[in-house]
Amino acid sequence: MIMKIMSICFYVCVIAAIILFPFSVGAQLDWLSYSSTATVRYIDYFDDSLQVISSGGWLKVDLFTLGMRKITNNDGLGTNDLYCILQDDDGTVWLVGDGRLVREQEGVFKPYLFFDSENELVPLYCITDDGDQLWIGTSGGLTLFSKFIDDGQIEDSYFRFGDFNPQPPVFSVQLQGDTIWIATSDGVAVSDKSNPDLLKSFANWSVFRPSRFGVAAL
Questions:
Q1: Of 157, 203, 161, nearest to 185 (Cα)?
Q2: pTM of this prediction?
Q3: Burial (CB count within 10 angstroms: exposed 0-12, middle 13-18, buried 19+), residue 134
Q4: Cβ density class 48-57: b for 16+ within 10 Å, e for less
Q5: What are the C-alpha distances in Å from 108 to residues 5, 41, 93, 102, 104?
Q6: Is 36 helix (H, G, I), strand (E, B) or coil?
Q7: Would you list the DSSP string of 70-119?
Q8: Which of 16, 8, 93 is nearest to 54 (CA)?
Q9: Looking at the domain 8-212, which fold is it?
Q10: Which strand (E) or helix (H) includes residue 179?
Q11: pLDDT digits (tens, 9 = 90+) for 61-105
Q12: Which residues sit opposite 182 in a β-bridge?
């Protein structure tokens, strides 16, 4: 695979120290680590907390007290195996993980399950906000999800990107205006998303393989 999900032992100390530094100039900052949550896959910051997403659940770290709250399957997530998180402009939190998208509003969780053609749960790797919609990278391609139609539903899925192998895992999605970039196991693909129906055709994607580019010294 060209791209791998980075496995990182759960050490939040560096980020905590950097963010806390402006509030304690001249003070001695010690390293602090939390090491009981398996593999950390993503970190974000909102609601005055570091949001840490791992294979062992969702952690909220208060960077002033360095206290931690851990949210797991037992709290309503439906899975502990998570990959990514975002908070949209409405303050709603969305998480993706093993086979599900999870919406969190005021402490209430609503799961949306994703199945493949063999009725197996599909791992979801990344999520990007796009107004009323979400773009989700999965183990078998790209999915467009509506936040509001029928209280949340899959609008479409995309499996072919240029001459890449069909159904590649999509690990990251980046939006720039009407342009969508995706990072896959075969390389990077880009297209115009203004008419999502056109994304169904592999011919409407331009692709870039790492082998096409030389390595330049920085």
A1: 161
A2: 0.83
A3: buried
A4: ebbbbbbbbb
A5: 28, 23, 10, 10, 5
A6: coil
A7: EE-GGGTTS-S-EEEEEE-TTS-EEEEEBTEEEEEETTEEEEEE-B-TTS
A8: 8
A9: Methylamine Dehydrogenase; Chain H (2.130.10)
A10: strand 179-184
A11: 998 898 999 999 999 999 999 999 999 999 999 999 999 999 999
A12: 173, 189
Q: What is the DSSP string of 110-173?
A: EEEE-B-TTSPBPBEEEEEEETTEEEEEETTEEEEEESSGGGSEEEEEE---TTSPSS--EEEE
Q: How far apart are the first and last CA of the chain?
A: 25
Residue 31, CA distances (Å) to 10, 15, 26 in order: 13, 10, 16
Q: Give the H or E element holding residue 54.
A: strand 49-54
Q: Return the residue matching tokens 């209430």.
A: 108
The parts of the chain modelled with pLDDT lower than 70 are 1-37, 213-218
